[in-house]
Amino acid sequence: MFKYCEKELSILTEGQIERFFDILNRASELIQKARDQSYLDSLIETLAVIQDPDTEESGLNDADAKKLINICSEFKRSEYDSETLRKGLQMAILKAIRVDNVQANYQITPDTIANVIGYIISGIFRGTESISLLDPAMGTGNLLTALNNQLSNTLSLTPTVSGIENDDAMFELAADSFELQHIHAELFHEDAVQNVLAPMVDVAVSDLPIGYYPIDKNAKGFATHSENGHSYVHHLLIEFAMNHVKKGGFGFFLVPSQLFQTDEAKQLLKWMQGRIYLQGLLNLPSELFQNAAAQKAILILQNTGEKAKQADPVMLGEFPSFKDQQAFAKFLTEIDAWEEKDLK
Q1: Could you tell me which residue ranges the YtxK-like N-terminal helical domain spans (predicted)?
Q2: Is residue 3 predicted with pLDDT exceeding 80?
């Protein structure tokens, strides 16, 4: 009986996600066609209208404006929970990425990976009364909102959330996502490398942009900056993030699997010595990536201080295929044992 109800509930939730996406999609396509602009920009305008029906849409004729209001009026916030809204918006952003052929940095962190990071965090912080999160490169906010919702359920608390994003469109989408889901957050529309006055938190988490940071003078104040030429932006952001983590606090970052096998890694390792514990590096399943060079891993760091100590052994390994549920569950059990026996 319980399983039947659970299945019924799942179908109902999927239907709600699709219904919300349908509203976003029809409204965005209408604006896109009327204005002859990108789907992404049209989606941002749609979100503004959905949240405030009195928003004036200049550039639309009366007929299109009326159609838009009618479509958006189908949305009733009380009919949706936060996760349903997040997943519906995620579908719309994925369509924007496909239709507009936008740059790689707009790619959304898959929910499976977000769930794994949330699982590890919830294990470490189980029994605590509060948790604060910071994402120094939050993009559209999908990873941060997914973790907020997951930790709210698993730890029965409301996380304190902060995020930083430099890109105009991604910041607007993130801000709309938080507002839509009724998640209170402190958001900074700035470049984290320019040393934003962000709060100190328990956990820094980010699906880091990979590549070179273009403005060398901004990177000079970082210990991880390159002595010659451009610095790796993911190194700079790891340093920035961990500088905003409390003593004994953690950082969880999606990084290249080969993070410590480049020439530039020397600066990163030098900065870590004496102040950061490398607690884990878990490769994500290779099947998720087009080639070995593109493979990513979950990097687990911990600041020194408080009761922090170097885990022995460091958690190293590769996740089994997410499709192999038995092997995946076994690997999570191994993580549980490591957290309890070796990390704590």
Answers
A1: 18-96
A2: no
- Taking CA 250 as the corner, what is the angle to CA 295 and CA 176, rounded to the nearest 5 degrees? 75
pLDDT for res 6: 39
Q: Do 125 and 181 belong together in one domain?
A: yes
pTM of the shown model: 0.92
174 — phi, psi (to 5°)?
A: -65, -45
What strands lie across the sheet with 185-188, from one edge to the other? 185-188, 160-164, 132-135, 201-207, 245-256, 296-303, 276-283, 315-318
Phi, psi (rounded to 5 degrees) for 342: -105, -30
Tell me, yes or no, whether 72 and 136 share the same domain.
no
Which of 9-23, 57-71, 152-166, 280-294 ranks highest by mean pLDDT?
Answer: 152-166
Q: Domain containing 62: what range?
A: 2-101
Looking at every residue in the chain, the average pLDDT score rounds to 91
More confident position, 208 or 263: 208
Same domain, 252 and 264: yes
Judgement on whether residues 97 and 119 belong to the same structural domain of the protein: no
